[in-house]
């Protein structure tokens, strides 16, 4: 049975678009998803579908539409969702894109997921003028970046990612990706 990962964008940030994970889990299970597990309040959901559902890219696109509509119906506001198969998450970890980065308490490693219909800008590399933020590599609609908090802060880095790739993206810390893979 294929496992999927839904990465929800913009929930439970600054007290806005509150979606309790326990309630989300129940709602998604009622809609027919199985083995639903959530991680953190930032909207990371791992699930499977009942037997008989096709395991294809068109199925992912259907789920990417279905999940936001379920959330909007239940919680009253739209929430974009980007989906990946669990195998795709495992492949990202296998690539180990940050292996050359020396991690310190001030270094943040980020993984940004692009939507299915984003223009392919994955070959873009970028270094901010103050050298605090770097896009180091990419792979299959996924961008890897590093932020040095001793120089700058997260919001500027996230704004830069949106300028380059648009708003239909979502970013997670590398440690979160490692935890998702273990669900």
Distance between the termini: 15 Å
Low-confidence runs of at least 5 consecutive residues: none
Name the helix and strand elements from N-terminus to C-terminus, one letter apiece.
EHEEHEHEEEEHEH
Structural class: alpha+beta
Helix content: 25-40%
What does this entry look like structurally?
This protein is α+β, with helices and mostly antiparallel strands and 183 residues long. It has two domains: 3-87, SP0830-like domains (Alpha-Beta Plaits, 2-Layer Sandwich); 93-181. The chain has helices spanning 21-30, 57-75, 86-95, 154-165, 174-181, and strands at residues 3-8, 33-39, 44-49, 81-85, 107-114, 126-127, 133-138, 142-148, 169-173. The strands form two sheets. It has a five-stranded antiparallel β-sheet. A four-stranded antiparallel β-sheet has the order 2-3-1-4. A hairpin with a 4-residue loop joins β2 and β3. The longest helix has 19 residues, at 57-75. The chain is globular, with a radius of gyration of 16 Å. The mean pLDDT is 88.
Question: What's the short version?
Answer:
This protein has 5 helices and 9 strands; from the N terminus they run E-H-E-E-H-E-H-E-E-E-E-H-E-H. It is α+β, with helices and mostly antiparallel strands. The protein is globular, with a radius of gyration of 16 Å.
């Amino acid at each position: 049975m294929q496992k999927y990962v839904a990465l929800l964008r913009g929930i439970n940030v600054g007290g806005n678009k509150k979606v309790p994970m326990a309630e989300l889990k129940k709602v998604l299970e009622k809609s027919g998803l199985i083995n639903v597990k959530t991680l953190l309040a930032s909207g990371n959901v791992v699930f499977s579908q009942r037997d008989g559902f096709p395991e294809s890219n068109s199925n992912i696109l259907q789920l990417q539409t279905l999940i936001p509509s379920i959330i909007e119906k239940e919680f009253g506001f739209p929430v974009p969702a980007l989906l990946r198969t669990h195998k795709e998450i495992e492949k990202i970890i296998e690539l180990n894109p940050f292996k050359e980065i020396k991690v310190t308490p001030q270094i943040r490693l980020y993984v940004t997921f692009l939507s299915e219909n984003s223009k392919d800008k994955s070959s873009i590399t970028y270094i901010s003028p103050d050298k605090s933020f770097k896009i180091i590599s990419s792979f299959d609609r996924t961008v890897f970046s590093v932020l040095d908090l001793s120089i700058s802060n997260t919001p500027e880095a996230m704004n830069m990612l949106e300028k380059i790739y648009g708003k239909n993206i979502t970013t997670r810390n590398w440690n979160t990706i490692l935890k998702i893979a273990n669900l």
